[in-house]
Write a structure and sequence with these properties.
Helices cover 80% and strands 0% of the residues. It is mainly α. The protein is elongated and about 115 Å long. The termini are far apart.
Length: 193
């Protein structure tokens, strides 16, 4: 290597070290200028992670306690301690327990959980053989047993001799329904009527 090349190499090395130091100084100035904001951001991120972890563990603990209490209620529906735990930890499971207790006692009027209330209304409509009640239940958009309610409405119409109404009612059930096999049987029966 010649002296010129050595000088050029040393100069390049000094430039790269100078750039590194210059970058380091910029970062240090930025840190000093925004020290509080950076520390606050780090604290917020760490606090959020800890908060999410604690919240998840509390939810898991509550879920476990509610499930244990619900199992106790399934064994003994009069267990007040388990019912109180359910009421505190998981209101929906508490309402399911109330529903089950109400079914045994014949009192289902205070059910507030939507799907259970719909099932109670459906059962009452079936028990009373009221076509209008079945119609109102079956026309609810998100009713779980919509097709079966329509099928039962058609059966009640057949029982009362309204065969044309029953045929029209059966046409409301889509072919993709799980009740379609029963619908086809009833339609075959109605062909002769």
């Amino acid at each position: 290597m010649s002296l010129k090349e050595n000088a050029k190499y040393v100069k390049e090395e000094l430039n790269s070290e100078e750039k590194f130091l210059e970058g380091f100084v910029r970062v240090e100035r930025f840190y000093k200028k925004n020290k509080l904001i950076i520390i606050a951001a780090v604290v917020i991120v760490i606090g959020s992670i800890i908060g999410l972890y604690v919240t998840k563990s509390i939810q898991d603990k509550n879920k476990l306690e509610a499930n244990i209490a619900f199992n106790k209620v399934l064994e003994n529906q009069k267990d007040e301690d388990a019912l109180n735990i359910l009421k505190e930890k998981n209101i929906q499971l508490y309402q399911v327990a109330q529903f089950m207790q109400g079914l045994k006692e014949g009192n289902t009027s205070d059910i507030k959980l939507k799907y259970l209330k719909d099932l109670v209304d459906y059962q009452k409509a079936l028990d009373s053989k009221d076509i209008n009640k079945l119609n109102s239940v079956s026309m609810q958009k998100d009713f779980l047993l919509k097709e079966f309610a329509i099928l039962n409405k058609a059966l009640l119409e057949v029982d009362s001799g309204k065969y044309e109404d029953a045929k029209a009612t059966l046409n409301l059930i889509p072919e993709t329904s799980k009740a379609n096999d029963l619908v086809n049987i009833l339609k075959h029966y109605l062909i002769t009527k």
